[in-house]
Amino acid sequence: MEAEILIASSPADGAVSCWDLKAGCERRRYKPCGSPPHGIVSVAGGFASSQLTEGKSSGSIFYWSWNKAQVEVMSRQNEPIGPLVSDVKGTFIVGGGVSGDIYLWEVASKRLLVKWHAHYTAVSCLDLYESLLVSGSNDGWIRVWSIYLMLDDELREKAKQPYDLSFQAHFQKVTDVKLCFSTPYPFIVSASEDNMCKIWRLATGELIREIKLPSAVNAISVDPLEEVIYAGARDGNIYVREINATSSSSSGHVKDIIGSSLKQGIGVTCLASSYDGSLLAFGLENGMIRVWDTRASKLVHSLKHTTGPINNVQFITHKTPQNSYESATAFLRKHGSTLPSHSITSPRDNPRIEAAVRLPSSSPQPLEPVCESLRFMMEQIEHHQRRDPKLECTQGVEKLTSSLQQSNQMNQQWKKINEDLYQFCVDQILSHSENNDRP
Questions:
Q1: Which of 30, 171, 317, 321 has the greatest number of beta carbons closer than 10 A?
Q2: How far is C-alpha 386 from the geometric centre of its chain's CA atoms?
Q3: What is the pLDDT of residues 420-434, one digit of tens each?
């Protein structure tokens, strides 16, 4: 079974709290945690956090498993690591250093795969979508990277520059950045201490829209449909803006939608949207965590973490323990009859922006449509043969044969994925059995 929980951290008590929102209570508290803003990510079987220690020039990455409270040291570096981001599966982690370097680790082996110099100043925020990474820095610059390119030494040496896109987005620190791919034209949303939120076209770096706010923005969140931006400001308000608003309506300040539930002067420090977008969690400078129902427009939870500022909040899907057979059966039932979703076509403006095939998504597509498409193609072949065996049949068969070949390739991909899923389930069963055998 899967349950969506909320985790939060604060430098005041050096702990991460784990909240069950259905019950409205705290489930567990993990220590020690000296995470900076954007410094907590969900990984396979738990979560990881970058650690900042006052007075020290080195940094560490800590890892916690859901099944035990003891912390594990995943990595140690010669510089403090700030923001972290992970892929959807939680198999690798990307971190940004105060020197401007970016690191990429494999979670399972705890091995550093690659490191590169990304910015002239400290990396302040990161976001990852499949093989694309976007980074923001303290000097206001944003850069887009291909993970594939950075992992390939030969390709990286041949490239004119290591990044896919680089531009100065703000004149002050970039406090948050998001990659959005739900539209035919992917875009980037950025926020800064200069009181601005900006929307950029990913393919070219062109500024699409800028939104001026009354206060500096500490964090932003984009709803799952990528239609609305939530901006948490230092004046204690959360501002909302429709991403596709007309240019005529973008000149004024956006309205405050959650300010009525907050006391003025208590700054909003961090934001997170739930997976379905129904909830918006935000941390405050006074140690409170509040959860807002975006559909009913009301406050549903007010949680006390500590007396100091909250610097991270995040929704995480936690798989509750099951016996081995139930776990494997549930996994196969959920993922075994799905096909990979469409690859995202790289924009022609920037052919170096690569795309990756996504494995089973949140809205799985059943296998039956593939059979239906094959049946449809055979019917079309017969139809063309009846109409004109010399012209239409030849052209139609060529097109449909090509489509049939593509379908066969997809079926091969499906077969490979099914084998991988089967191996994953076997590994899960063996791992669970080993854990149960331990005293």
A1: 30
A2: 51
A3: 787 777 677 666 655
For residue 327, give both structure tokens: 């776990």
Residues pairing with 40 in the sheet: 49
137-170 per-residue burial string, b: 16 or more CB within 10 A, e: under 16 = bbbbbbbbbbbbbbeeeeebeeeeebbbbbeebb
Is residue 227 within 8 A of residue 244, CB to CB? The reply is yes
Q: How confident is the model at residue 355 (pLDDT cuts 50, 70, 90)?
A: very low
The whole-model pTM stands at 0.69
CA distance 106 to 74: 10
Tokens of 54: 């006052």
Calculated CA dihedral for residues 148, 150, 152, 153, nearest 10 degrees: 170
Task: Give 113's contacts (C-beta < 8 A, 6+ positions apart).
Answer: 92, 104, 105, 106, 151
Is the distance from CB of 243 to CB of 226 less than 8 angstroms? Answer: yes
Query: Of 95 and 341, which is predicted with more confidence?
Result: 95
- Alpha-carbon span 53 to 39, nearest angstrom: 13
What H or E segment, with its residue span, contains residue 9?
strand 2-10
- The stretches of 206-352 forming alpha helices (DSSP H) are 324-335
Range of weakest confidence among 60-64, 196-200, 207-211, 232-236: 60-64
CA 393 to CA 291: how far, in whole Å?
61
The residues facing 9 across adjacent strands are: 16, 312
Where do we find the tokens 């100091």? 308
Whole-number Å distance between alpha carbons of 434 and 439? 10
Average pLDDT over residues 173-195: 93
The tokens for 385 are: 């043969």
Segment of 3-12, 315-324, 335-344, 405-414 carrying the highest mean pLDDT: 3-12
As given in the structure block, the two tokens for residue 286 are 């006074």
Residue 352's pLDDT is 38
Q: Are 396 and 380 in contact (CB under 8 A)?
A: yes
> Cα separation of 52 and 80, whole Å?
6
CA 174 to CA 193: how far, in whole Å?
Answer: 7
